[in-house]
Amino acid sequence: MTNNKPTNSYNVLSFNMTSYRLLYTFILIIGLTILGCSRTKVLTSSQAPAQITVDGSLTDWPRDRIQMNPQGDYDLFFSNDEEFLYVFVGLKNNQLYQSIKRYGLRFYFDSDKDPRRSFGIVYPVGIMDVLSEIPGARKEYLENPGWENQPENRRLIESIEENLPDRVMIIQRTNKRDPLRPVPIGRDALRAQSVELSMDRTSSVMQIEMKIPLRSSRMRQFAIDVQNNKDIHFGFEIVPPTLEEMMGESYRSEQMNPSARDPYGNRVDQAQSYQRLLMQTNNSYVRWNRIRLSK
To answer: What sections of the chain are H helices per DSSP?
Structure first.
């Protein structure tokens, strides 16, 4: 009897400590979740006093009444009238700009938290997205480091970069479980639905200006559809390809060859290539804010 009592006491103590740890962990998780939600910034949109010309410049914005949101990488400006939301993004980080050129920049406008990423615009469209339209080009670009160094491919990349302001893609889905599949769309088709986009790469690193309808209609299918003047959940992100896609299906780490060459005869250090690709997959970038419309 005397030998069982300490054992039972120890078991009770162990159970209590385990329960305490579980309860503490649960409370900590809930606290961090609430803290994370509370950090979503609410930015107030100013009332647009007159029509804003979408030209990649802030010259006609009501700058004395705009709530500026200076960040380390970008500045955000918002304004609205009864029909449109105006957005201005000023990028200030060159490394971020280089990632955008490669992978594109996705903007999302959601009138409700669920589902997120229901309506979005890809602007500018990245080099990777354009190469996806050319059979085999995206795969070659990702798997063969020497592909970009070929003269004809280098000219192709330069042409894509020059035409960044002219390409747009649209994202629309009604269920958050549906895949995100950006679809190319012409600038004229967007303008016909009152969606206007512009960028300026001569000032700072890049400036992007948008005009998006707040509510859809028969003539405006691409719209935010704000309900009862609720806040708009505004997000933007950069989505690099996965490591599996970049390494290719035939890749095996144990098959690294120090004297390997790419299909163009260039010597390839596979270990360095792996590290380079791994760094690129870490270039994902996501930011969310809430926009409170001016009434």
So the answer is: 4-38, 94-103, 127-131, 137-143, 151-162, 187-192, 243-247, 270-281
Q: How many residues does the chain have?
A: 295
Three-state SS at 295: coil
The pTM of the whole model exceeds 0.70: yes
CA distance 154 to 162: 12
3-class DSSP assignment, residue 175: coil
For residue 46, give the H/E element and its range: strand 46-47
| Amino acid letter for position 262 | D
Indicate the SS3 state at residue 135. Answer: coil
How far apart are alpha carbons 183 and 161 in whole angstroms? Answer: 19
CA 284 to chain CA centroid, Å, is 7
pLDDT by residue (tens digit) across 144-187? 878 888 999 999 999 999 998 899 999 998 888 888 889 999 99
User: pLDDT tens for residues 208-267?
Assistant: 999 999 998 888 989 998 877 678 999 999 998 877 776 665 554 444 455 555 555 555
Give strand pairing partners of 209.
88, 198
The identity of residue 2, as a single letter, is T
Query: CA 46 to CA 66: how far, in whole Å?
Result: 6
